Predict the structure.
Amino acid sequence: MLSMSKSTANQADEPHDLERRVNALLAEMTLAEKIGQMSQRHAGDGQAEVLHDELRAGRVGSVLNVVDVDVINELQRIAVEESRLGIPLMVGRDVIHGFKTIMPIPLGQAASWNPEIVRAGARIAALEASTAGINWTFAPMIDISRDARWGRIAESLGEDAFLASQLGAAMVKGFQGEDLSALGSIAACAKHFAGYGAAESGRDYATTNIPENEMRNVYLRPFKAAIDAGVTTLMTSFSEIDGVPATASEFLLRQVLRDEWAFDGFVISDWDSVRQLKIHGLTASDRESAHEAAIAGVDMEMAGDAYAAHLAALVEDGEVSEETIDHAVANILRAKFRLGLFEKSFANPEELPPIASDDALATARKAALQSVVLLKNDDRVLPLSTEDLSNVAVVGPLADAPYEQLGTWIFDGDASLSITPIQAIRSLVGEQVDVRYLRALANSRDKSTESFDEAVEIALDSDAVVLFLGEESILSGEAHSRADISLPGAQAELVQRIRETGKPVIAVILAGRPLTLTNIVDEVDAILFAWHPGTMGGPAIADLLFGVESPSGKLPATFPRMVGQIPIYYNQKNTGKPPSPDSVVLIDDIDPHAPQLSTGMTAYHLDAGYTPLFAFGHGLSYTDFQYRNIGVDSPEIGMGETITISAELVNAGEVAAEEVVQLYIRDLAGNVTRPVRELKGFKRIRLEPGKTAKVEFDLHTDELAFYGRNMRLVTEPGEFHAWIGGSSDTQLRTEFRISD
Ligand code: BGC
């Protein structure tokens, strides 16, 4: 059985044939078997006999959290050979940014602005997870988040709907491959539908308040893109919107998802989120929760037992129609047919590439390399030169922390595969440079300054100091939100002590979120922001420090100066009183003799101003990229036409490097107010020194559509501004018009 050959001709390819198979199977099912398909069991904690009996009785449609290939094959065997209808199982797992070989955290991958590397990383994850018999991952997470306090921003693709749409779709394609039924393809799950990233004050699971227009124009867009990319499943959010938890939202799960978008995959609840409807205070009992979720359109319940316990009685009592059940089960069966599970139910690791293959490690290294963002580089202190240095001090809690560099959500990640920065630096410089390493702090939260004198001594004795700072992995992720997002523990004090040595100081920061770096930004000469870079983070960072490669990452989320600026994001609205440099008087500049006249009556904070510390899209290079000659192929286009906006990118520096060229637009007047800038395109371009490239973006008028007051998606005629540059604060602008 295990050597069954890969499905060659998937009979489910043909849509009519697929529906015929779904309906034929559905017609044979009892109500209990249907409800079984709608139930997912946590299979990670013993109780094998109970589970086996349930499988035989056809009471389970999916399991999660089992990763042993023999155990999974045995579960599949029981489902396929010993249950009445032989329906194979969906086997789910959180394979978020790698299985054993770990890519950068998703937020880090987003900093690559490279759909191709994101796709390739997901492909590696799918291949490795397939060796265990996993056929379904709970990724990508495409929740937009404008709040770095939220621990799960690490798992997201950042603050922008366009960027998250492009990269989320790339992840779906990576997991699912060209053919979902092919060997090494696994089903993806776009989550969390919807609005989870807007949890109040970034506190995980907290209430969200998102008006429908904002929901449609921002939070829902990446989900539509994932569906267009063929995503098999969606997961509901734990959060509530406007008083209704997402797991009971008919608006989201029926109106938007099925009626407007015609999604024909299936929806799973989040972990026990059906029964949580009662805890939210929406229902008075688990029975009522099962009712609400089923009516709303949750096809499968994750981990809880409200469906198993109550759906049958709800149908018998006429409170849930059998049609609702049939619709849910058809969605689930369709996914199983598309996965080819009926043709090939068992996994055989020998048919797949080995774990941590050369390709996997090379992909992880490239992804890490492209995700690191050079935030500042005074006097071009970076790259370091092995020729000029005779010794370097490497100090800090994250230079040699193989597990921490992997980041959050790495259930199966193998820290023994990690190459740490200190290992990679030593191997890169060899005998040429003397590397002195001191951890100085036990971990990122450590408040003890005991080793700081020793750190200072080493620094005084070195030509440059590289500090490895940030957050250990446990400080971000689910239920790991922070109210203060500065460097924890005594790290800022360490920076200060090292600064006083007068040596060049380079900070490499590993973290799961944007941090407020205001208290250290002027105390260091350069900052490489590396997120949690994954298995191959060390070699990627070493290559960047020593100039083997030039940094090319760009921020996928805005870095605030102070936590009080949150939510802060580039595509904000203009307001009726937009701030400008002349309108801003900061707290220390208020004239004590005429305080009432001192501020500019515009939208800014007295203590923080209105700009971020680092803007969305920001990221420096070792070369000098310059932009010029922005233009449009026509100043006016008609509705339904395409405009080409272009600019020249010049590599005016000394080294070859890659740049992410970004296109932003502003729609000057709309039926609802439009953001001051919206990302509409980006391209990663490699350029040799002295060379110029003309970079063109084609923009169809449909790509300028937005939801207006009547919640319809339309493009309006009128005036537009367009900018091309290397960050969201670029000033190189042109204009065009869409005629009536
Ligand atoms: C998370 C989901 C995850 C699920 C299964 C939940 O707590 O919110 O994102 O897929 O657990 O592990």
Q: What stands out?
A: The first strand starts at residue 40 and ends at 42. Residues 322-338 form the longest helix (17 residues). Residues 1-12 have pLDDT under 50 and may be disordered. DSSP finds 19 helices and 25 strands in the chain.
